[in-house]
Amino acid sequence: MGCELIKHHCGIIGVWGVPNAAELAFHGLYSLQHRGQEAAGIVSTDGNRFYRKLGMGTVTQIFSSPTVLGSLKGSGAIGHNRYSTTGASSEFNIQPLSAVLRDGPVAIGHNGNLVNTKRIRKRLQEDGAIFQSTTDSEIIIHLMARSKKEQVRDKLLEALDEIEGAFSLVLLSDHAMYAARDPHGWRPLCIGEKDGKYIFSSESCALDLLGYSYIRDVRPGELVLVDDEGLHSHQYADGSQTHHCVFELIYFSRPDSRFGGDYIDKFRRKMGKNLAEEYPDDADIVISVPDSSNTAALGYSQRSEARFEMGLIRNHYVGRTFIQPTQTMREMGVKLKFNPVGGVLKDRKVVVVEDSIVRGTTLRKLTDLIRQAGAKEVHVRVSSPPIKHPCYYGMDFPSREELIAHTRSVEEIRKTIGVDSLGYLSVEKLLDSVPHENGENYCTACFTGEYPIPVEQDEENGSKERYEDR
Ligand code: SF4
Fold it and tell me: Is the CB of 186 under 6 A from ligand 1?
């Protein structure tokens, strides 16, 4: 997937108890930019008012002027980086979403997809609710608005009790900040601390940047509240049957982020090593499809005889702007993004490590480029199993029909991609690469088709594919 543009889900951050909370939220979002580049927003509070800035584009494009950040006052702030997984790509869907409830304003930032929203949305609409966006996150606000409970915490708990699916969320009120994770722990969310002040973040790489210490992950089924008195935890649901998204560890999360205390780098290296054991070769060199496959390729090379080389150079500025590609740019295709290093590849038997293959079309072009650069043989090794099924928990894979592995065998895929050999990491060895010490279990549905919780069927066409709101 290092060579395919697949949309991630989102990144969230929450800051409480420091005078420049919005500035910290901005820097946190900056380090979570890989989780969403379509839109971003920050909502802050000084305890009296809420301040908000949302926009389309990257974090630096939206918060380019110091006056914008300066206008986001207060010691509490939450932020959100967005790629649309549910809800169309529109300004109405930019988060954090905010609303004024009976007893004060709230704002919410959400990562993941809910799987039972159609029924809830229909019921709410029949009851008179008017939705501003097509995101499933707005449902949480509507459920809170209708709650008869007095406290924001209790309204949120009531909403959490009703929704199903993948969610890690941060919620801001005028007197506290909340973080919650679904009982399966699909999407990551961690807690950082500095001088008795707390931050919530999708990934710990944001804590490193901000100088906060990683304390722990928000537990599956846990609601954490931070106010001026400190941090308070409430286990609102049994979180012992986890289904962490294993794709976070394969591809989404940064290798310098932590999962359960260890760096993701460690698990990706193990995937590479296991891959080398399952599919050994006598190649001259191992190269990665940068950047997401770098760590797995290093692991592969450590376990095989072949040395790791930088055979592909990536242009990091492609796909990060809203400039419409010209016809010439389209014709250049994958060359615009990757350039092979001829001196490294010429006359070599090359293993290319890729973290995953979705459609396979870009990888085919990329391996053609590697051959054109003089490689004698091209062997592809994939540090995940074949992706055969769609994801309903926050990952925007294309439809089943577009997934190259949905109906093809590995040999058919090898022929389609046009390489000398192809090997995928098995599900067993993937699970062997990730931690289980604390009873962790993982979602592997996109590989196995075994969905941990059922997905709401579309009442109109009976298909699970059309999960987008109408
Ligand atoms: S289906 Fe795949 S991408 Fe989606 S949550 Fe499960 S492991 Fe992650």
Answer: yes
